Amino acid sequence: MAEQTVRIDGRRLRLSNLDKVLYPETGTTKGEVIDYYTRIAPRLLPHVRARPVTRKRWPDGVGTEAAPAEPFFAKALEPGAPAWVPRRAIDHSSGAKDYPLVEELATLVYLAQVASLELHVPQWRFDAAGTRSNPDRIVLDLDPGPGVGLVECAEVARWARTILLDIGLDPMPVTSGSKGIHLYAHLDGRQSSDAVSALAKELARAIEADHPDLVVSQMAKTARAGKVFIDWSQNNGSKTTIAPYSLRGRAQPTVAAPRTWEELDDPGLRHLLFHEVLERTDDPLSSIDPSDGPLRSYIAKRTAGRTPEPVPSAPHGEAPAEGLPRFVIQEHHASRLHWDLRLERDGVLVSWAVPKGVPATTGKNSLAVMTEDHPMQYLDFAGEIPRGQYGAGTMTVWDTGRYELEKWRDDEIIATLEGRPEGPLGRVRLALIRTEGDGEKSQWLLHRMKTDADGRPQRDGAAVVPREDSAPTTASSAPRASAVADSELRPMLATGATPGIATAAAARWREVWVEMKWDGIRGIGLWDGERLRLRSRNGNDLTATYPELTAVDLGLGAAPAVIDGEIVALDAQGRPSFPLLQKRMNLAQARDITQEAARTPVHLYLFDVLEADGRDLTGLPLAARRATLEHLAHATARVVVVPPVFDDVDAALSSSERFGLEGIVVKDPDSPYRRGQRTDRWLKVKHSRTQEVVIGGIRPGKGNRAGTIGSLLVGVPSFDGLRYAGRVGSGFGERALAQLSNLLEPLGTSRNPFIGVPAADARDALWVEPRLVAEVEFAEFTPGGILRQARWRGLRPDKDPADVVRED
Asked: Per the database record, which ranges form the ATP-dependent DNA ligase family profile domain (predicted)?
């Protein structure tokens, strides 16, 4: 075919020799290769974006199985490459080399045009400033030695998955298109390449220790016969791995194809050809390298671990909360003082930088420059952004509240904002009018309307001036409201871990604290100087449920505070008992609560403080927060200040088991408090295996359970919906069965809420809307995700279905 020039997204590109055969055994031409990369681009690009690409080129084709052709290994971008191909320099001993970045379809097509069949990338990305970031994913390369194949690699992958899930990482498999399987898991970007490589090495050694007959972690090729080699070294900052969805330069056009775990259970598992991959519509690996979303620009400008700002793992916004949308205005002492106005919209905070702040009068407007959308967690962010990071400087919350929207167009927004009681903003009707540009860096006027929404004259406000107590000192000086909004009461969550993983993590910290794990429910307390209000983890008001904690003066001082702890009920031996607490958790009538409180009193075990005397403490290290908590709270008949009792994981585990406790929590005393985030700087290690589940169905009882519940059908949320996790039919008392019947009857529905229910379980099922969360004990998960020997522990009204994650 003659040479032709095409335009791709405005880029001019010359294509040639489209009829040239690159895969002789299948007759696959360069034109078909370009077509594949064009069609797969939406799924491939998120996995390579901002990563330097090393290529294997076969300009004359790959040859045949009997006579394979040698590739041309390309690091530096060739001199004839189009000027519009983005590139970044990486230093080598022979000098700096410019590596291509594949940010758009046009670059991908260019690489296919020059027969770059294989695209290899590291596990790290460049940030917006061109600096190498920490890795945002970990990879294990399962490479079969002589005598084994994909089926054995799949078995090892399942073993690796169990361990990775134990440390809070959710891996997904990729059949490499060559020999083995790659396992990827997303990371938060806090660890260096060296640290991630060391972790991968320890994982490989642990799997080898448990399965020495099939697994080897040594690099020596002589040790691999009949075994699967777990190559952990590809997490090294200088190493690369074949990119997901890249073609392979094999005799046939196979692909490094993301797969599902169900596919790995197939005894006929094999590598996929490019046309088979094109027939698949979903990307199973999308949770590892999320595609575009409104927060992409925000995430690209920040590196988790280098800034105290929240850095979401995915660029997507949150589901909208109930009620009026929220806003925040932050005072930002950056290179130039300005105020940041952020309005909740479609799950993110649409943001403007306002150098002069909100105009005090209707006769003077303020310039507002649109910035990138921010995550919802930014509503309460205050702290010191370190020097060298984007937006470096001190940020405090100037005012926050909710707004009533009148108009939201691309060029005009009108809304009435109402700040905190006694806050500097008050209630004000504002208009934002776009005057120049579009999107980020577009310029707007911020105008104070002459009338309010009812047409009445709107009075002037106070002039906006920097606050004396917001000078750039430390995060602890940031002034805050004495009583935060309920939407901000999101506790920091621990990540599940094994004893080995917890010990390894603790060894990397400067110091380690170990607390006992109390078998209760989380309680966030708002102290107003006289009484305590309690909120559950999902925001439910628990104040009336536990009057022995909220109807008395707990002696926490005259200043307001926000505290974090566990509500527990003690058995006769003084041990926390979740079954006992169940008697209190679901009561609603005041009379019932009073009667049961006399029989089953509760205690509040405190272990953290978020605010004290109007100061936000979340940016401080745990050790500093603990010192404040100990000064604030003193042990009483109902309040216990939980001490870190050990600095040795094994000793703490042994003691907690001896005393019949649930387990331990291993904490880094340098860790800040991350509202609503699950962190690997708090690790929970349990003695027994428990799992939160969502109830989605009932199987009617038979025999002595006729007329009531025989078993519950339960599930665990997954990326693609509520994944069926099996039946729970034991551990119920008569009271629990009666309570469940009353709660589930109004939720009846004709729709099956689960994915993957076997026909035998669905045959006589009565489906219910998946609203209730429960907790079960179990022996293990099967490879298909079914709970074995599940036993009822109780309902969890403090949890929402969206909070449930697989804990194995």
From this structure: 595-718
Three-state SS for 312-348 is CCCCCCCCCCCCCCEEEEEEEECCCEEEEEEEEECCE
Domain residue limits at 331: 296-305+323-456
Looking at the structure of the chain, the number of domains it has is 5
Dist CA 594 CA 547 (whole Å) = 8
**Do 109 and 234 fall into the same domain?**
no
442 and 514 co-located in one domain? no
d(CA 575, CA 569): 8
Residue 524 and residue 484 in contact, taking contact as beta carbons nearer than 8 Å: no
- The answer to whether residues 798 and 586 touch, using CB atoms and an 8 Å cutoff, is no
Decide if 653 is inside a domain.
yes
Say how far residue 274 (Cα) sits from the centre of its chain: 31
Under 8 Å between Cβ of 376 and 317: yes
Note whether residue 625 is domain-resident.
yes
Do 198 and 270 lie in one domain? The reply is: yes
Backbone angles phi, psi at 208, to 5 degrees: -65, -40
Give per-10-residue mean pLDDT for the chain (808 aa): 76 91 96 94 91 96 95 90 91 87 92 96 87 92 95 95 89 96 91 93 93 91 91 95 97 96 93 94 82 78 79 76 91 90 94 94 91 93 84 91 93 94 91 89 93 89 70 33 51 87 86 91 91 87 91 88 94 86 84 90 94 90 92 82 82 87 92 88 88 94 76 89 91 83 90 90 90 89 83 88 83
Same domain, 503 and 369: no
Given the residues 30, 227, 301, 517, the one annotated as active site: 517
517 is catalytic: yes
CB of 339 within 8 A of CB of 358? yes
At a CB cut-off of 8 Å and minimum separation 6, what does 501 contact?
A: 163, 166, 167, 683
